[in-house]
UniProtKB/TrEMBL annotation:
GO terms for molecular function: S-adenosylmethionine-dependent methyltransferase activity. Keywords: Methyltransferase, Transferase. Signal peptide: none annotated. InterPro entries: SAM-dependent_MTases_sf. It holds the Pfam family Methyltransf_23. This is Class I SAM-dependent methyltransferase. One of its GO terms (biological process) is methylation. Coiled coil: none annotated. The keyword Nucleotide-binding does not apply. The lineage of its organism: Bacteria, Bacillati, Actinomycetota, Actinomycetes, Mycobacteriales. It comes from Corynebacterium canis.
Length: 248
């Protein structure tokens, strides 16, 4: 079924993921630990995404992923990237749209069905998947990227700290997610949401506290969510890319 969304402006897309949950304020630095909260997402999100995995790659999703991949390429520039991890990779639509941006791609997701579809599209051994971040050695990645995932994660600080551990010094972290004030975006699908977007200044400060230097922070795309009653609710997404310091 087509999502009743449309996007506007540069880098416009027509599709977005609908989710539902209760607002919790900015609980970025509280929670039960990264292992526990990711396990919670397994329970609350996996069933939904397992069910949707084999019908996930709609034309709108592919269009949106192509826009996201283009923006990521612009942020990464001409860097020589050996190994890239997509955190919350889904079926790999963003990864595969990135083409030859990295020599090797790893996809991580909590939905085994999503990973099954991801693997089925792999053109070569350059593309692999993991179902646990523990499978990835520390300081082994050149870039970690994630798109529209962190608002599903309760303790964002601990999650980002874990991802930082997997990056080499000088490695890049790119996050695309909702701006603060995106409550209307989370509507109509029964999967856990902990954050209705993130305040940009606070998010950048969090990355700096984790030892990153912010390189680029911009609006990714803006859209309008159309409810069943015809009400239009705007939302906006950002893309931030930061570099891991030597001591992070």
């Amino acid at each position: 079924m087509e999502d009743p969304h449309r996007a506007q402006g540069a880098g416009a897309t027509k599709d977005c993921r609908r989710v539902v949950g209760t607002a919790c304020g900015r609980r970025w630095c509280r929670g039960r630990g990264v292992v526990t909260q990711i396990a919670t997402f397994f329970y609350t999100g996996r069933m939904y995404f397992d069910e949707k995995a084999f019908q996930w790659d709609t034309p709108h999703v592919l269009e949106r992923s192509a826009v996201q991949a283009r923006l990521l390429r612009e942020h990464w520039g001409e860097r020589d990237l050996e190994t890239a991890l997509e955190f919350g990779c889904g079926t790999g639509t963003v990864t595969y749209a990135l083409g030859d941006c990295a020599a090797r791609f790893i996809g991580y997701d909590t939905s085994e069905n999503m990973l099954e579809v991801y693997r089925s599209k792999a053109p070569s051994e350059r593309y692999t998947t993991v179902s646990s971040l523990a499978e990835i050695p520390a300081a082994s990645l050149d870039v970690v990227f994630t798109s529209m995932v962190l608002h599903h994660v309760e303790n964002v600080r601990e999650t980002l700290a874990t991802l930082a551990e997997k990056l080499r010094p000088g490695g890049l972290l790119s996050v695309l997610d909702l701006d603060a004030g995106s409550e209307s975006f989370h509507h109509g699908v029964d999967v856990q949401v902990f954050h209705h977007g993130f305040a940009r200044e606070e998010f950048a400060k969090l990355l700096q506290e984790l030892g990153f230097t912010v390189l680029k922070f911009e609006t990714a795309y803006e859209g309008v969510k159309v409810r069943e009653d015809g009400t239009e609710n705007p939302y906006r997404t950002f893309l931030i890319t930061a570099e891991k310091g030597a001591a992070a």
